[in-house]
Design a protein that fits this description.
GO terms for molecular function: pyrophosphatase activity; RNA binding. It comes from Rotaria magnacalcarata. Pfam families: RRM_1. This is RRM domain-containing protein. The protein folds into two domains: 170 residues, Hypothetical Protein Pfu-838710-001 (Beta Barrel); 130 residues, Alpha-Beta Plaits. An eight-stranded antiparallel beta barrel has the order 1-5-4-3-2-12-13-14, surrounded by four helices. Strands 7-8-6-11 form a four-stranded antiparallel beta sheet. Strands 9-10 form a two-stranded antiparallel sheet. The chain is built from nine helices and 15 strands. The longest helix has 15 residues. The chain is elongated, with a radius of gyration of 27 Å. It is an alpha+beta fold. Helix content is 22%, strand content 31%.
């Protein structure tokens, strides 16, 4: 199990002054983000929390730590982190299911339209030579020649046309190199680009068979799980609900704005935290991640040197977690 040595303290100073003291010995510029930690009752005696962090996958974190506040005795934490990956497209799931794609959150059990049944009954077989990319939102005036100008690195372009009228149907398939970070336009009109699902996704069924991705509300055949219409998070049950039911309830929640510095080639994380409920206090947290060949005492020496550089006084050390501080504050308020 991974280990780190932690020091947590409160600092009576402005956050900008603390940042400027840390900046000279940090590995690089700070990162700013928000975190929400939900703590659950944990029968093992350790701490278990579900962490929702801005622009990152959710994480389930379990850790065991001795609650002390001393520069002479290491505050050792053994922890385990399990990312909770939320998949918003069938490309991330790597398979296609008509019923799943017919549901806004991928969880409905009853088909919303008859085409879903038709998709299950169809015997679609992927073409032997299928293209790499799907190009959509193509205006009617756009021709194959125009597309070759827009995608100069394409090796093959197949603009789909109506079998009777031979008019373009607004989409094409393409082989070759495409810069996915770039926007491609025709006469100012933004084109839609996605991986060809028939080549990337197991069990694919195209729109003509009742499947597909995207669609319009007017057609009644909306399909989710593409980049244009990704799955929404399930409404009926969250990870937090499941954990709360299985573990016997929630202890509490911690919301904070965090400023993160890395130092020592990434070995130590320096957190400057503004915690909801303690708006007038600035907290600084040091986490020295121990290598296999390092003892807790070694990590404590690194943390102690950083305390001196930042200006953290031992009398301001905090022995417990933020959740314990908040619960203690709530208890004191209730007593009054």
């Amino acid at each position: 199990m991974p280990r780190n040595v932690e020091i947590k303290a409160s600092i009576d100073d402005h956050i900008n002054n603390i940042i400027e003291r840390i900046r000279p010995f940090a590995d690089g510029p700070p990162r700013y983000f928000t975190q929400n930690d939900t703590f659950f009752n944990c029968p093992s005696g350790g701490r278990l929390k579900l962490r929702i962090e801005q622009d990152c996958p959710a994480q389930l974190i379990y850790y065991e730590r001795n609650d002390i506040a001393s520069l002479s005795i290491p505050k050792l934490s053994n922890y385990s982190i399990a990312p909770i990956m939320y998949r918003s497209t069938c490309f991330q799931w790597e398979f296609y299911d008509p019923q799943m794609s017919g549901s806004i959150d991928g969880t409905d059990l009853i088909p919303h339209d008859r085409a879903i049944d038709r998709a299950y009954e169809s015997n679609y077989k992927r073409p032997h030579c299928s293209s790499s990319y799907f190009i959509g939102h193509i205006p009617p005036s756009c021709t194959e020649h125009d597309l070759t100008q827009i995608f100069p690195n394409a090796t093959r372009i197949n603009l789909i046309r109506d079998i009777v009228t031979r008019e373009p149907r607004g989409y094409a398939f393409l082989d070759g190199n495409i810069d996915r970070d770039k926007e491609y336009k025709f006469n100012g009109h933004l084109l839609f680009i996605e991986d060809n699902a028939s080549k990337k996704v197991f069990g694919w069924k195209p729109r003509r068979c009742g499947g597909g991705l995207g669609g319009k509300k007017q057609s009644g055949q909306l399909r989710f799980g593409g980049s244009q219409r990704p799955f929404k998070k399930p409404f009926h049950m969250t990870e937090q609900d499941v954990l709360s039911l299985s573990l016997g309830g929630i202890r509490g929640q911690v919301d904070k704005h965090r400023t993160l510095f890395l130092t020592g080639h990434g070995q130590t994380r320096i957190h400057i935290d503004q915690v909801k409920g303690f708006e007038s206090t600035i907290f600084v947290e040091l986490e020295v991640i121990l290598r296999d060949d390092q003892t807790p005492e070694h990590g404590q020496l690194i943390a102690k040197e950083l305390c001196e550089k930042i200006g953290i006084q031992e009398e301001n050390h905090i022995k417990c977690a933020y959740i314990d501080l908040l619960l203690k504050k709530d208890y004191q308020n209730d007593c009054h």
